[in-house]
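batch_manifest entry 22 of 60
target: Carbohydrate ABC transporter permease
source organism: Paenibacillus gyeongsangnamensis
requested by: lab member K.T.
priority: normal
notes from requester: please return tokens only, no post-processing; we will run our own comparison against the previous entry in this batch. if the run fails, retry once and flag.
--- input ---
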Amino acid sequence: MRKASGAWQAFNAFNLIFLTCLALAMFLPFLNVLAQSFSSSQAIVAGKVLFVPVDFTWINYQYVFSDAAIWRSFGVTVYITVVGTLINLIATASLAYPVSRQEYIGRQYVVFMVLITIVFTAPLIPNFILMKNLHLTNTLWALLIPGAISSFNFFVMRAFFMQIPSEIIDSGRMDGCSELRMIRSIVLPLSKPVMASLGIFYAVNHWNTYMSALYYVNKPALWPLQVKLRQLIAADDIAIDPSASQFSSLAHMDPEGIKMATIIIATVPIVLIYPFLQRHFVKGMMIGSVKS
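--- output ---
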């Protein structure tokens, strides 16, 4: 095996250093937030907390877990993430599969109309008027229906369906399968990689729902976690239950630790999903990269 040249070794060393610095730039701020969430208010105010908790305490998380409003927002976020992702995958597959098959007439016009939505997006005011006329404002449907199909994800899923050999589809039809049964029994089992990849994209988008909820939802009971977190961070003072006397001094003295604990709770759940879908996610990201 020929030894790598000096220029190639230097290039690899530069890549290693650059990617390490990039990873640290992404990870260290999260580590700082995590450390502050476990630190006392006095240490946070004094600026003593960097990457290791100072005066370790659980009280910030105890406050967050005792706040019914945060739990309600957490439940709303979980609901729109699970239900919204299912709606997204079903709607995207329902549109992408027909236009991926050569025998469907007019598929090029559908693809062209979807492509137009990438180039030209609807302004905010017409969108709001549409949501209001459809009576979707102040409902969770306003966070689920408008983004049921992502144009980019549609093209990714269509590209995957186009790679399924026609012989498999034809054999299913010869065995008497209807289109719906063929999709359920043949196409979808073969589509786990793309479903996992796009499922992660859709789930992260729903978990981070903020602007749509800010525009279309005015009821605090329907606010997702990100809107509740924004209210918590922007507030000068944190409202507390009068009966929770053990948290009164903490909330009024300095709410930074509580804010950091809420950020961690809002971030960690969606991060934990990735390891379980990593294998399918990597396969899905390779779609279209290799041509036979």
